[in-house]
Amino acid sequence: WEWAGRQDYNLLVIGGGSGGLACAKEAAQLGMKVAVVDYVEPSPRGTRWGLGGTCVNVGCIPKKLIHQAALLGGMIRDAPHYGWDVAQPVLHDWRKMAEAVQNYVKSLNWGHRVQLQDRKVKYFNIKASFVNEHTICGVTKGGKETLLSAEHIVIATGGRPRYPTHIEGALEYGITSDDIFWLKESPGKTLVVGASYVALECAGFLTGLGLDTTVMMRSIPLRGFDQQMSSLVTAYMASQGTRFLKHCTPSRVQKLPDGQLQVTWEDLTSGKENMGTFSTVLWAIGRIPETRSLNLENAGINTNPNSQKILVDAQEATSVPHIYAIGDVAEGRPELTPTAIMAGKLLARRLYGQSLDVMDYSNVPTTVFTPLEYGCVGLSEEEAMARHGEEHVEVYHAYYKPLEFTVAERDASQCYIKMVCLRKPPQLVLGLHFLGPNAGEVTQGFALGIKCGASYEQVMRTVGIHPTCAEEVAKLRISKRSGLDPTVTGCG
Amino acid sequence: RLGSVRGVLVSSPPGRRARLSSPGTGRSSSEAREELRRRLLGLIEGNRVMIFSKSYCPHCTRVVWNPFNVFTYLSFYSSDDGANVQEMLSEITNQRTVPNIFVNKVHMGGCDRTFQAHQSGLLQKLLQEDSTYDYDLIVIGGGSGGLACAQEAAILGKKVMVLDFVVPSPQGTSWGLGGTCVNVGCVPKKLMHQAALLGQALNDSRKFGWEYGQQVKHNWETMTEAIQNHISSLNWGHRLSLREKSVDYVNSYGEFVEHHRIKATNRKGQETSYTAAKFVIATGERPRYLGIQGDKEYCITSDDLFSLPYCPGKTLVVGASYVALECAGVLTGLGLDVTVMVRSVLLRGFDQEMAERVGSYMEQHGVKFLRKFIPVMVKQLEKGSPGKLKVVAKSTEGPETIEGVYNTVLLAIGRDSCTRKMGLDKIGVKINKKTGKIPVNDVEQTNVPYVYAVGDILEGKLELTPVAIQAGKLLARRLFGGCLEKCDYINVPTTVFTPLEYGCCGLSEEKAIEVYKKENLEVYHTFFWPLEWTVAGRDNNTCYAKIICNKFDNYRVIGFHVLGPNAGEVTQGFAAAMKCGLTKQLLDDTIGIHPTCGEVFTTLEITKSSGLDITQKGC
């Protein structure tokens, strides 16, 4: 099998999302001949979008923008406390917001196209599947087939929202996060099913925009995240008007003659059946990797039979040494844009730039953009206890009140910070959890500190910036073990 | 056995070692000697039992490990200037040998004499001897630093008094307990800044689909009332907190009358007097006036602005300090016509590139700048709330003069220390004659060993609330808690709450070049466009991030600068990382949080020296 020099490309990237594009651009920068194939299979509701993948089109970007719209609603309510006379009524026009958000997303799609062109990366809008371990077959929207071959292939096809399989009407009448950001009209009264961060973020901004919103969850919110923080996140949402149906699971969705959706669900606690009517039902019960149509078996690429994700090693290589997988499609990787980007870049540098740096997936910071934002890095309290033993872990915590909340008369009951440390001096910081405004901005810098191996003492020796929320992190004095009251006492 | 003595040996927890670091280099030897003497006297004054020892000396070990395991002692075996310490001690005590032991400020002698003193009962007597002073500590000034110090001392079991008295501003403004930050600084400033940001948010909100009446007006009185209510609750909170910790609070003006004695004068002119073993001066600063015709009569300062009972209207802000720019930014954000008169540079002491960017953003958003002018006269044209004032200003570069009419003139040209009218001369505490600031050593001690100072009045230190709090707390712990940790004034982060916030930590580019030379530095920078600004249609290529790295120290980050929304929230964590030795490599290895502003620092690629374009195109 003599392939060297006979392939069309040095590198072929399947999937034009954050990770794939980063990898392709980096490889092109290093002088390689690179192609990106990207194809968005329309959602069951028919929603489709341009180049850039989940983050740009149906993830981080539109999500944070609509979150911002919801936050602005809160600011409009705060404004009179600060002396602004805002004439009532205050209404929200979904159509106008959606158009603005969608226009911005489209500008990003365009930007990605231009960037690929600038770097001489060949872009194909085709749906790819493996023919053999060096060749893929791409099919255009019109059904035209193209064969492309490359020395190295990177799979970065990401994931798509999962629909429940055994619930009548779920697929016909339900939408997912693939659709919500592209709705032309307001979704109206909405049932969000699921307890993932996607579910809570969507429910949060819908509530913030004034819509009647209910979250239905089978078990715990934000599985995998610190559970104390998670319950504070939902407590705040409840205080802002999001309804929660806990320990409930839907069994049927029916369309009523007036177009409304009637949802039947089972209350797992009482065992009773309940019913409710909604304009929109949004499934946010998880995501499945986009591997089904890739014909991975033609190339001999192994997947995890349960998760359908592609098995990779520390170098991001699959079971076939010259085929790699990065981002949400790879088994055991955090499903986050910046990790995919960095993994893609580092992979290209290892392949073509004589670099040996492998991606470090530990201590990746992240933020959940719920109405009260939750930023975290490192271990949850549960994880720290499990790994090190309760007696070896010290947790410092505090409730605090953001200065801006005072005049606005906002309730700060859920503004809370927790630092999980080893108990033995110098009390290495294992995890930081921050619930409050601008949590992403607050968490980013501390993530570096944790990366540097910061100790509790070092963080405490950092002088605060007054008055900010972030300074509260540098003032965490009360340990959970002490049993002292961690609530704010006005000032100081 | 000395077991019975222990109960009174409350001054220090077990086995703490004080360490003398060598005084700063480049000073004359007489200065260094004076400094050393001051330190040693401070240690003797500050500790119930003070043992100077060498760690290898068996006699010292005998004393230390025998009954005295609850004292502070000092080992100068490893200290660089051990010989100097020994010499100074012999000068003070006529004893060259170690251990050299003091009990309750009385020189005991060596090991044998201390054990003799124990047998004779003298040691116990000395230890039980009650202080002859009314208080262990009197703190003058109830601001951030003073309160922190007082409360910490009280927690450590000391009898503490706080004296606080607000001399009304020339316009008659006065306020409650808590000092500048709470009453006329950070707190009301940030709340007014928030009011201005909400005005911007109202503009943005329409782009995000919110709809309401076109007419949005701002009501100054509603805002100030809400802010003042919050401040009152903070004043009350401070009172309560002092009471809970059994700190005596006296609302009187404190003046030293003799050593260890202070006179307190209340609002009615009634005088009382108190004594204390130790004093902490934390009187802070007040805004400076120009010393021109009409300034005290007609101008206001930041002392007055935040509780001004009427909207200031068209305002001239004089000065280019952060106070000036923050006030100007707030007033503009609330819709007022604002002009800033600047004598020379903006934000002196801050990174000048950042300062100019702060200024240019303000200029683009409606603030007018009059550069290189200084006011020479302020005249009242009309009385009222607000009235009308005529300001005459002259150029700093030529004979040109200009005139303007404003409703309000706000002076923000700097601040003066409140140290000149408190009898410091009576007890010989040195102040800088020119600035009024108090020079202290690295343990916040003045030249008079029992008098300490914290906060804005310190010479060459930072004027920041959290620094004063930290310094105050640590000072109390050193004085009364056997703690040795000193306040670290290096890499202190701060944020200027101008309309576009500016956060920084470490060195400015100018200072970095001065210290490390340009060729040894690499500066990485970029513009960034906050995601929230895109849909809002706000300026691209305005928010800016910059780090300064030392090439020859592993590209360590020695300066961090960010101009953008929530700069304070962004900067704090990076400051913590700088404490842990942040390098460029670590920044690159850290995963960003998407989409935030802070993540821009994890992807900085363009160096300033490359001259490459840093403008953002679309995405």
TrEMBL record, chain A:
| GO MF, one example | glutathione-disulfide reductase (NADPH) activity
Identify one Gene Ontology CC term for this UniProt entry. mitochondrion
- DNA-binding listed as a keyword: no
Q: What residues form the catalytic site here?
A: 466 (proton acceptor)
Query: Which free-text remark accompanies the cofactor?
Result: Binds 1 FAD per subunit.
In Pfam terms, one family for this protein is Pyr_redox_dim
Q: Which residues bind NAD(+)?
A: 194-201, 286
Q: Which residues form the Pyridine nucleotide-disulphide oxidoreductase dimerisation domain?
A: 364-475
Q: Which family does it belong to?
A: Belongs to the class-I pyridine nucleotide-disulfide oxidoreductase family.
**Which parts of the sequence bind FAD?**
64, 328
Enzyme Commission number(s): 1.8.1.9
Name this polypeptide is given: thioredoxin-disulfide reductase (NADPH)
Supply the InterPro entries for this chain.
FAD/NAD-bd_sf, FAD/NAD-binding_dom, FAD/NAD-linked_Rdtase_dimer_sf, GSHR/TRXR-like, Pyr_nuc-diS_OxRdtase, Pyr_nucl-diS_OxRdtase_dimer, Pyr_OxRdtase_I_AS, Thioredoxin/glutathione_Rdtase
The chain positions of domain FAD/NAD(P)-binding read 9-344
List, in alphabetical order, the GO biological process terms annotated in this UniProt record.
cell redox homeostasis; cellular response to oxidative stress; glutathione metabolic process
* Native organism: Lynx canadensis (Canada lynx)
Q: Name what cofactor the protein needs.
A: FAD
**Superkingdom of this protein's organism:** Eukaryota
**Which keywords accompany this UniProt record?**
Disulfide bond, FAD, Flavoprotein, NAD, NADP, Nucleotide-binding, Oxidoreductase, Redox-active center, Selenocysteine
Q: List the disulfide bonds.
A: 55-60
From TrEMBL, chain B:
**EC number, as in UniProt:** 1.8.1.9
What is its cofactor?
A: FAD
Cited Gene3D superfamilies:
3.30.390.30, FAD/NAD(P)-binding domain, Glutaredoxin
- CDD domains the UniProt entry points to: GRX_GRXh_1_2_like (cd03419)
Reaction catalyzed: [thioredoxin]-dithiol + NADP(+) = [thioredoxin]-disulfide + NADPH + H(+)
PROSITE patterns, from UniProt? GLUTAREDOXIN_2, PYRIDINE_REDOX_1
Domain Pyridine nucleotide-disulphide oxidoreductase dimerisation: residue ranges: 492-603
Q: Where is the signal peptide?
A: none
Q: Which SUPFAM superfamilies match?
A: FAD/NAD(P)-binding domain, FAD/NAD-linked reductases, dimerisation (C-terminal) domain, Thioredoxin-like
Where is this protein localized, as stated in its record?
Answer: Cytoplasm; Microsome; Nucleus
Going by the UniProt record, its keywords in alphabetical order are: Cytoplasm, Developmental protein, Differentiation, Disulfide bond, Electron transport, Endoplasmic reticulum, FAD, Flavoprotein, Methylation, Microsome, NADP, Nucleus, Oxidoreductase, Phosphoprotein, Redox-active center, Selenocysteine, Spermatogenesis, Transport
The residue ranges crossing the membrane are: none
Region annotated Disordered sits at 1-33
FAD/NAD(P)-binding domain: which residues?
A: 135-472
What molecular function does GO assign, one term?
Answer: flavin adenine dinucleotide binding
Identify the GO cellular component terms for this protein.
cytosol; mitochondrion; nucleus
Its BP terms in the Gene Ontology are:
cell differentiation; cell redox homeostasis; cellular response to oxidative stress; glutathione metabolic process; spermatogenesis
* Stated family: Belongs to the class-I pyridine nucleotide-disulfide oxidoreductase family.
Role played: Displays thioredoxin reductase, glutaredoxin and glutathione reductase activities. Catalyzes disulfide bond isomerization. Promotes disulfide bond formation between GPX4 and various sperm proteins and may play a role in sperm maturation by promoting formation of sperm structural components.
Assembly, per entry: Homodimer.
What's the name of the protein? Answer: Thioredoxin reductase 3
Protein source organism: Lynx canadensis (Canada lynx)
Q: Which gene encodes it?
A: TXNRD3
